[in-house]
Design a protein that fits this description.
The chain is α+β, with helices and mostly antiparallel strands. Helix content is 23%, strand content 27%. The chain is built from one helix and twelve strands. The strands form three sheets. Strands 2, 5, 6, 10, 11 and 12 form a six-stranded mixed sheet that branches. Strands 1, 3, 8 and 9 form a four-stranded antiparallel sheet that branches. The protein has a two-stranded antiparallel ribbon with strand order 4-7.
Length: 211
């Protein structure tokens, strides 16, 4: 009578096979996880790089093409600047209820016939709020020590919107421009926003009302 079923080797084979399958599954899972981490990391890095290029510093351009010596600087007449007053998503808004802060930004367009380079860095960007002939608030009074230049290559007739930044409904002064400053008049008061970027100034202002 055979004693093969009591052979210790017969009891070890299923265990070895199970360990092999388990290791293969672990390796596949780790490879998939590493690929996902690399993909997400790349997307986040690209987004951060673009935002820093507009308001932080360094050279950046849409589509990853950096400005270089082969592209001429934009002529003043080829730049169209349009101030935007709206919500955080750059949706234009003409009036704001009590307690709701307006968000400021701008749209920049190369209206020339060729690609050109332009500095849209925060160092040369200024927002100004006026009421009649009076300047109510200007970002020139803000702490600007960390702001730098950022050169983009602007393609003809392809508008680019800046990120939006909220305004605290205050006056600015030599002491600053933040929420600690004196509040402006509301209750239906009308204001206008203008913007200057890299020496170019918006020809039109955006009117809005604070309720």
């Amino acid at each position: 009578m055979s004693n093969s079923r009591h052979d210790p080797r017969n009891r070890q084979r299923p265990v070895a096979r199970s360990k092999s399958v388990y290791l293969r599954r672990r390796i596949i899972a780790l490879v998939v996880l590493a690929a996902l981490v690399a993909l997400v990391g790349g997307l986040v890095a690209a987004a951060v790089s673009f935002v820093q290029g507009i308001f932080g510093g360094g050279s950046a351009a849409p589509g990853g093409s950096n400005a270089n010596g082969t592209v001429a600087a934009c002529a003043a007449e080829s730049i169209l600047l349009e101030p935007i007053v709206g919500d955080a998503n750059a949706n234009p808004q003409a009036s704001f209820d009590t307690g709701i802060n307006p968000f400021f930004g701008y749209r920049i367009t190369n209206v020339g016939a060729k690609d050109c380079t332009f500095d849209v860095g925060g160092k040369g960007t200024f927002f100004t709020v006026t009421s009649g002939s009076e300047t109510i608030w200007t970002s020139e009074n803000c702490d600007r020590t960390a702001l730098t230049s950022a050169v983009l290559t602007l393609k003809p007739n392809e508008p680019i919107k800046s990120p939006m930044s909220d305004w605290y409904r205050v006056k600015s002064s030599s002491t600053g421009c933040g929420a600690e400053q004196a509040p402006v008049t509301a209750g239906g008061a009308s204001y206008h926003l203008s913007v200057e970027v890299g020496g170019a100034v918006s020809k039109e202002t955006s009117q809005f009302i604070l309720n």
